C-alpha cells in the first residue's frame, strides 16, 4: 500500500493512526502526533506495546536538527547474572531458561520506560500538553474501542498462556471469552491511571501511589522490581548514530539499540558496491545476507551497555573496519563463498513502530515494545497495566557482553531511522518484528539509497534474514534461483522462519508526502 498526502502523514499502528492525524490537523507537530499514536497503540494493541513496556527510542528531525530519545529498559537493582537457571546453552540455540522465567512471569519484568520516554519527547520537542496527547488513549479506555482483527487473533493464539494469569485473562477477554473482531473492549482501570498521569505528570507513575501499587504486586509474587528502580529511572536525550550511504546521511538510535548495526550495514553496502548486483537476484540476496551477518557478528562480539562497559563504537564504524568487511564481502559474492558463522539464538518480539511527518517537514521514527508479545503476561490488578518482559532481552548466561547486571540496559533490535540529503529531510523509516527489524530496515534502505529503486518497491521487495549463523530465511517472492544459489554457497535455508519485519516509511517526494505501509501488513496509510 502507498498513499500521497500534502501536509502530514502517519504510518504506525493502523488502529491509532487517525488520532495522530487529528493532532496534526490541530496544529501539533510530528512529535505530538507520534506520541499520541504511541499512547493510543498502548491501549489498542496490547500484544505489541503498552504503558508497562519500554523503548526503543525516538529518532526525529525537528527544526533542522536530528535528535534521539532513549527510553530502553534497565534491569532492577537486585538483578544478577545468575538469577535464571539455564537449562541448555549450546551456541546453536543460545541459552534456554527453566520455565521461561526470563520471559514469562514476575521475574521477567524490568523497569518500564514508555511513559518517561514519551513524556520527555513531548516536553523537549513537542508543542502540545501531555493531557491533550493522552486524551485519545484515555477515551478508548473509558468508552471502549473496537477489537481489531490483530487483537482478536493475538489473544486466540496466546489463549493458553493468557489464562495462566487471571488478571491478564480479565484484561484481554470479554466475559471470559476470546474476543472476536468487531467486539467492544474497555480498560477503565488503565484509563483512570492515565488520567492521574495527565493531571499530575509521569513522576506519579514512577514515584507516587501508582508506583507503590505496581511494586507491591510484583514483589508479592516473587518479582524483584523495587520502588527505587522506578524512582531512579529517567529517559535520556542521546546523540544519534550517523553514517554516510551514497549521497545520503543515515541517522538512527545508538546503543543499546540496533541503530549501530543498521549504520554498519548501510556503510558496508555502499563500500561493497552492492548496486553491481541489482539485476542478479541470486547474488543480490547473497550480498544482503553477508552484510547482515557481518553486522550481527559485531553485535555478538562487541555490543553491551556502554554505560557499564567499554564499547569501541568508533572502531566499529571506522573506515578500516567498514572497508575490511566490505572487501571481504565483495570477495564472497564474486567467488560464491559463504562467510564465517557465529551461532546464536533467534528472538521474537512484540513491538510497534510509528512514522510521522508534519507540514514543516519535521519527521519522527518511534519504536516501542513489550519485549515478547504480551510482555511478561503479568497484569497489575485494578490498574489494567500489562507489564513488559525486558529481562528476556539479556543473555541469561554469565560473563557475556549482554549478560544481566543491576541497572544495565539490554541490547535490543529497534532502529528508528531518519535519512537526510544535504541537511534536508528525505525519509523516516522503522519496523516491528524482533530480530528481523535491522535486517529489514537495511534492505529497504539499500534498495532505496544504494540501488536507487522506487520507494514502493523498496518496501515491498522480497527480503532475506540471517543472524550471524549458517541459516538463512528468504521470502518465496525471490523465486527459486536465489535460495538454490544460497544453498550452493553453503547456507541452510530456514523454511519455517519469517524473513521480513513489518516496515513503515514516509518519504518526501516531488508530489508530496509518500506514506508507505509494508504490504505484508495490509494496512491503509493516513494523512491529509
Radius of gyration: 22 Å
- Please count the helical segments: 18
Mean pLDDT: 95
Question: Main beta sheet, described?
Answer: 7 strands, antiparallel
Number of strands: 23
Write the layout of secondary structure elements.
Blueprint: E1 3-5, E2 9-11, H1 17-25, H2 30-44, E3 54-62, E4 65-70, E5 86-89, E6 95-97, H3 114-125, H4 130-143, E7 145-146, H5 149-157, H6 159-162, H7 166-172, E8 184-185, H8 188-200, H9 203-207, H10 209-220, H11 227-231, E9 236-238, E10 241-245, E11 248-252, H12 259-271, H13 281-302, H14 313-316, H15 319-335, E12 350-357, E13 363-371, E14 379-380, E15 385-386, E16 417-421, E17 424-432, H16 436-450, H17 455-460, E18 464-465, E19 471-474, H18 481-489, E20 492-493, E21 502-509, E22 512-517, E23 526-527
Parallel strand pairs: 19-20
Antiparallel strand pairs: 1-22, 2-12, 2-23, 3-4, 3-13, 4-9, 5-6, 7-8, 10-11, 11-16, 12-13, 14-15, 16-17, 17-21, 18-19, 21-22
Brief synopsis:
The chain has 528 residues and is α+β, with helices and mostly antiparallel strands. Helix 1 runs antiparallel to helix 2 and helix 2 runs parallel beside helix 4.
Explain this structure.
This protein has 528 residues and is an alpha+beta fold. Helices cover 36% and strands 20% of the residues. The strands form six sheets. A seven-stranded antiparallel beta sheet has the order 1-22-21-17-16-11-10. The protein has a seven-stranded antiparallel beta sheet with strand order 9-4-3-13-12-2-23, covered by helices on one side.
Amino acid at each position: 500500500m502507498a498513499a500521497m498526502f500534502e501536509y502530514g502523514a502517519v504510518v504506525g499502528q493502523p488502529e491509532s493512526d487517525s488520532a495522530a492525524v487529528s493532532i496534526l490537523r490541530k496544529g501539533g507537530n510530528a512529535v505530538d502526533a507520534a506520541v499520541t499514536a504511541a499512547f493510543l497503540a498502548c491501549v489498542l494493541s496490547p500484544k505489541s506495546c503498552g504503558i508497562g513496556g519500554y523503548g526503543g527510542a525516538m529518532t526525529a528531525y525537528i527544526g533542522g536538527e536530528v535528535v534521539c530519545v532513549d527510553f530502553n529498559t534497565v534491569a532492577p537493582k537486585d538483578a544478577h547474572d545468575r538469577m535464571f537457571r539455564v537449562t541448555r546453552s549450546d551456541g546453536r540455540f543460545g541459552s534456554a531458561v527453566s520455565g521461561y522465567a526470563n520471559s514469562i512471569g514476575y521475574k521477567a519484568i524490568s523497569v518500564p520506560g514508555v511513559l518517561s520516554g514519551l513524556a520527555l519527547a513531548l516536553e523537549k520537542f513537542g508543542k502540545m500538553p501531555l493531557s491533550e496527547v493522552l486524551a485519545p488513549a484515555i477515551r478508548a479506555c473509558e468508552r471502549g474501542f473496537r477489537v481489531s482483527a490483530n487483537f482478536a487473533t493475538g489473544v486466540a493464539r496466546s489463549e493458553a498462556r493468557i489464562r495462566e494469569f487471571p488478571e491478564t485473562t480479565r484484561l484481554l477477554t470479554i466475559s471470559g471469552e476470546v474476543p472476536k473482531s468487531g467486539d467492544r473492549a474497555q480498560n477503565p482501570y488503565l484509563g483512570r491511571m492515565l488520567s492521574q498521569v495527565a493531571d499530575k505528570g509521569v513522576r506519579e507513575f514512577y514515584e507516587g501511589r501508582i508506583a507503590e501499587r505496581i511494586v507491591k504486586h510484583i514483589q508479592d509474587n516473587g518479582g524483584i522490581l523495587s520502588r527505587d528502580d522506578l524512582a531512579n529511572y529517567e529517559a535520556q536525550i542521546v546523540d544519534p548514530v550517523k553514517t554516510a550511504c551514497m549521497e545520503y546521511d543515515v541517522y538512527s538510535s545508538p546503543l543499546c539499540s540496533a541503530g549501530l548495526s543498521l549504520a554498519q550495514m548501510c556503510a558496508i553496502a555502499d563500500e561493497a558496491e552492492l548496486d553491481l548486483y541489482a539485476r542478479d537476484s541470486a547474488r543480490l540476496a547473497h550480498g544482503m545476507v553477508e552484510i547482515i551477518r557481518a553486522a550481527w557478528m559485531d553485535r555478538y562480539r562487541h555490543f553491551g551497555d556502554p554505560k557499564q562497559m567499554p564499547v569501541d563504537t568508533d572502531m566499529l564504524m571506522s573506515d578500516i573496519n567498514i572497508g575490511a568487511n566490505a572487501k571481504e564481502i565483495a570477495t564472497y559474492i564474486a567467488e560464491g563463498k559463504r562467510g564465517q558463522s557465529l551461532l546464536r539464538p533467534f528472538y521474537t518480539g512484540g513491538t510497534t513502530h510509528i512514522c510521522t511527518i508534519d507540514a514543516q517537514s519535521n519527521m519522527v521514527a518511534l519504536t516501542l515494545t513489550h519485549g515478547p508479545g504480551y510482555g511478561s503476561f503479568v497484569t497489575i490488578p485494578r490498574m489494567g497495566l500489562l507489564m513488559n518482559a525486558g529481562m528476556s532481552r539479556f543473555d541469561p548466561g554469565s560473563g557475556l557482553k549482554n549478560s544481566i547486571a543491576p541497572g544495565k540496559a539490554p541490547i535490543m533490535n529497534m532502529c528508528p531511522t531518519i535519512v537526510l540529503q544535504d541537511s534536508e529531510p528525505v525519509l523516516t523509516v522503522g519496523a516491528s518484528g524482533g530480530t528481523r527489524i535491522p535486517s529489514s530496515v537495511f534492505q529497504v534502505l539499500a534498495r532505496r539509497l544504494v540501488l536507487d529503486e522506487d520507494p514502493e518497491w523498496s518496501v515491498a521487495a522480497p527480503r532475506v534474514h540471517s543472524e550471524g549463523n549458517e541459516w538463512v530465511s528468504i521470502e518465496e517472492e525471490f523465486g527459486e534461483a536465489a535460495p538454490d544459489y544460497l544453498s550452493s554457497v553453503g547456507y541452510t535455508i530456514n523454511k519455517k522462519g519469517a524473513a521480513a519485519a513489518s516496515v513503515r516509511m514516509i518519504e518526501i517526494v516531488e508530489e508530496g508526502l509518500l506514506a508507505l505501509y509494508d504490504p505484508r501488513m495490509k494496512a491503509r496509510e493516513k494523512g491529509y
